[in-house]
Amino acid sequence: MTQDRSPAPQQGEDVKSLSADELQALEEKFDPELRFRVLTRPLAIGASILLFLLSCYHYYTAGFGIPQATTHRGLHLGVTLALVFLSFSAFGAKETKPSALAPFGLPLTDWVFMISGAIAAFYVPWIYADLAFRVGNPLPIDIIMGTILIVVLLEAVRRSMGWPLPVIALLFIAYAYFGRHMPGILVHPGASWSNIVNHLYLTSQGIYGTALGVIATYVFHFVLFGVMATRIGLGQLFIDLASALAGRYAGGPAKVSVVSSALLGSISGSSIANTVTTGSLTIPAMIRIGYPRHFAAAVEAASSTGGQITPPVMGAVAFLMIEYLGVPLTTILTAALVPAFMHFFGVLVQVHLEARRLGLRGLSAAELPNVWKVLKAGWLSLVPLVILVAVLLSGRTPFFAAFWSITACIVVLALQQVMASGIIDGIKGTIHGVWEGFILGARQSLAVTAAAALVGVVIGIVTLTGVGFKIAYMVTGVASDWAIAVSGLLSALPFEIMGVQTLTLLFTLLLTAIVCILMGCGIPTTANYIIMVAVAAPVLGLLQVQPLVAHFFVFYYGVLADVTPPVAMAAYAGAGIAGSNAFKTGNTAFRLSMGKALVPFIFVFQPALLLVTDGFTWSAFALAFGGAVLGIWALSAAVSNWLFAPLHWFERIILALAAILLVAPDLTATLIGIALILPTAIRQLVANNRSGSDGPLSRA
Q1: Are residues 174 and 218 in the same domain?
Q2: Tally of domains in the chain
Q3: Domain residues for 65?
Q4: Do 205 and 241 have their domain in common?
Q5: What would the pLDDT profile of 252-279 be if each residue is shown by its tens digit?
Q6: Is 336 in the same domain as 270?
Q7: In angstroms, rounded to a whole number, what is the distance separating the alpha carbons of residues 222 and 239?
Q8: Is-contact 29 272, C-beta < 8 A?
Q9: Residue 665: pLDDT band by 50, 70, 90 thresholds?
Q10: Are residues 339 and 262 in the same domain?
């Protein structure tokens, strides 16, 4: 990663934009899921046909009915594993020349992995009629096939995502096998290899479980929709709309970054892809008007990471939640609205305060697109998204909604092609567009499918050994000890701030958040969420946290890993575009994402913020929402060193303390927080008026 070699550019300084090839290389550098190798022509044709057929299969089943679960999952997994070993090389080589050891340019080891993995994946659906008689009493061939599939999955995920998830899976397998040698509460009788394979391979608690089912039934369709929606110009429309709506205000390009990433995140769940896509435009523009390079990159990374928590896709986690929680998708999407708003609000406030502190301008009218012209030219690309949301809200299944939205994308693509090129060329262009879109959609699902199947191994070990509840007991025990110690110190105060029970929950949340962030380093959001649901969510359940709230908590902190050093991939991708210091960019992106870090604690203590939790009242929601908004604003001012004017050091401390009180689920604490803010705010307003500068919400 390049280092900062010069001071921040002055306003008006030109900044070199990266080419399409450079952006693609940057995306591949930080996202191993996109490091596809170059195939020889025969294999490239075969892989393209297989990818296209996989998309066609899912498109058809979404609209006309999904087969029996094990058959559907096995077919999806078998084809995916074959494509993984066609698409990803063992050690990152981009191309292999044909030879005796590499027929058609594919090494013999890859042929073995590809064929054996596909056969092992297809085997379970093939014996499905006899499966009930095999579970608990597997045949030797069952153990052989299961062992093959586990080994192939470990290698497939290592190639497509790196080492973290395979290492975790191996540790869990070792725990199951060597259980009797484990220390303390972690000890268990241990399981034979036959029992382990039986549980992971032949039951619905392992590889063929919920994780793989959700990917095959929901996630694939929405990945395909996102690709097709981008091809018809929906992503570009979002960027143009964001520019038209937010670009004129102080620090305009940074606000464009926040708004466009929020919009683009509604159809895409990849924080790295979002960073590169929108950042290629917004980061140079931010630097050009005077933002420091690391700050410009951090804004784009923090905003793009927020795409994973933005309805309706939410990085595919929304569909996992409906399976785990057994609630309608509309419940999940409703619960996600306010926390997502809080994240983008937090980034936007810091962006604005930084712009006011640096005296940055907005974009001129000549630099901005006209909102009505943008809508007039691109309104057609909005139709599939409207259809998607309408069908989802009607109560139909998510995959049925995806079917109609993908169909709408194809129709819109056809209309665009015909209007641009005439009927004959338009038909050709449509066929070409669908062909490429279906291939790209299937290709982008490969790594997440392999990861979901391997996560099934982790989940299977958890259910086989009961280790999730043992970990929960250990964590709550440590948190309880800390709470008692701190409570003793606080007892010297003349009033009670927090009781032992509240402190226990607070420390449990802190420990859980740290584990989620650590697990998220190098593991994609969906896989991280699934593991955390099995391991961390039971911890919160022991403390009577509602399941919906617990799931959202671990989800949010898993996502935060993308902007948390030392493995902040989205931030590093942004730094690559900006030419800034990677670690400094990551630290700044984490600071900008503090709304996402703060809000989960708020909705655990005050679940009304999620709108659909048990015991919801509007008064509780108003207190939580108002406190969160003021708290994020106060904390943003403290870290930005600007409210309406520069802050003294002690004012920053006061604002940070006020922020903590404002987000507490207590009216008294909120009022004290407001009282702490008022003197600083009044002094700031006076200083601002004396300087003759504009207020904080004025345009540049």
Answers
A1: no
A2: 3
A3: 29-209
A4: no
A5: 888 888 888 888 877 776 778 788 878 8
A6: yes
A7: 20
A8: no
A9: low
A10: yes
Q: How confident is the model at residue 177 (pLDDT cuts 50, 70, 90)?
A: very high
As a whole number of angstroms, the distance between CA 337 and CA 333 comes to 7
Domain shared by 204 and 223, yes or no: no
Q: Which of 168, 190, 209 is the last residue of a domain?
A: 209
Angle, vertex CA 369, rays to CA 365 and CA 373, nearest 5:
125
499: Cβ–Cβ under 8 A, 6 or more apart, which residues? 487
Residue where a domain stops, chosen among 418, 448, 478? 448
Instruction: Say if 481 falls within a structural domain.
Output: no
CB-based contacts of 521, cutoff 8 Å, min separation 6 = 164, 561, 564, 566, 567
Q: What pLDDT does residue 642 have?
A: 85
In the Cβ-directed half-sphere of 4, how many Cα atoms lie within 13 Å? 18
Q: Is residue 193 located within the same domain as residue 252?
A: no
Q: Is 394 helix (H, G, I), strand (E, B) or coil?
A: coil
What is the sign of the dihedral through the CA atoms of 27, 30, 33 and 39?
A: positive
- 648 close to 626: Cβ distance less than 8 angstroms: no
Evaluate whether 179 touches 188 at the Cβ level (below 8 Å).
Answer: yes
Long-range own/partner contacts, residues 639-644 (CB < 8 A, 24 or more apart): 639/350, 639/591, 639/594, 640/350, 640/353, 640/354, 640/357, 641/357, 642/353, 642/354, 642/356, 642/357, 643/353, 643/680, 643/681, 643/684, 643/696, 644/681, 644/684, 644/685, 644/687, 644/688, 644/695, 644/696
Residue 647 neighbours by CB under 8 Å, 6+ apart: 637, 638, 641, 655, 680, 684
Q: How many CB atoms lie within 10 A of CB 544?
A: 8
Rounded to whole angstroms, the Cα distance separating 524 from 541 reads 24
How many Å apart are CA 398 and CA 394, to the nearest integer? 10
Residues 223 and 155 placed together within one structural domain of the fold: no
Digit-coded pLDDT (tens) for 453-472: 999 999 999 999 988 888 88
Residue 642 has φ and ψ, to the nearest 5°, of -160, 130
Do 134 and 249 lie in a common domain? no
Residue 593 lies in a domain: no
Q: Which residues, in sequence order, are bridge partners of residue 642?
A: 646
Identify the residue whose tokens are 């209007």. 419
Complete DSSP assignment for 413-434: HHHHHHHHH-HHHHHHHHHHHH
Backbone angles phi, psi at 104, to 5 degrees: 60, 20
